[in-house]
Design brief:
By secondary structure, this protein is α+β, with helices and mostly antiparallel strands. The chain has three helices and four strands. The protein has a four-stranded antiparallel sheet. A hairpin with a 4-residue loop joins strand 2 and strand 3. The chain is elongated, with a radius of gyration of 17 Å.
Length: 140
């Protein structure tokens, strides 16, 4: 099957690392293994078969404690479809699955760099995100 899109560009649109104070930093350093990664994807059509896809990764503590840090990256991808896509689900698969699989290594590396540069050098993401599986689960 031929690829029906080209990635024309990708860039970090927004980057955020928030740690209130030293006490929070020391607390988070101990409990960062409890933090969870969440992903949000949205897109907007532009002209000439262009689409801007914004993939947001958040790495945060979902619990109610006061001492927490917040990490977020919004990664924009500019995609041009190469042919007329008539089916809505075909476009959804490109946006939610195919493009994500292609850009995720860069996005994960950028988030890990943010975490490492924010004082948490030992953070690694053990589980890889399975966009194909997430897309298929969404359909069911």
């Amino acid at each position: 099957m031929t690829k029906k899109y080209n990635i024309l560009g990708k860039y970090i649109k927004d980057l955020s690392s928030e740690t209130k104070d030293t006490e929070t930093y020391l607390f988070v350093k101990e409990y960062i293994s409890k933090y969870q990664l969440s992903i949000d994807i949205n897109s907007r059509p532009l002209k000439n078969k262009l689409i801007e896809i914004n993939t947001t990764l958040k790495f945060e503590d979902k619990s109610e404690n006061e001492k927490k840090s917040y990490f977020e990256i919004i990664f924009a991808t500019i995609v041009q479809t190469t042919e007329e896509i008539k089916e809505k689900n075909e476009m959804e698969k490109i946006i939610l699955c195919d493009v994500q699989i292609e850009i995720y290594p860069d996005l994960e590396k950028a988030l890990l760099n943010l975490l490492h540069n924010s004082g948490y050098p030992n953070i690694k993401f053990e589980k890889k995100v399975d966009f194909e599986k997430l897309y298929n689960e969404r359909l069911n």
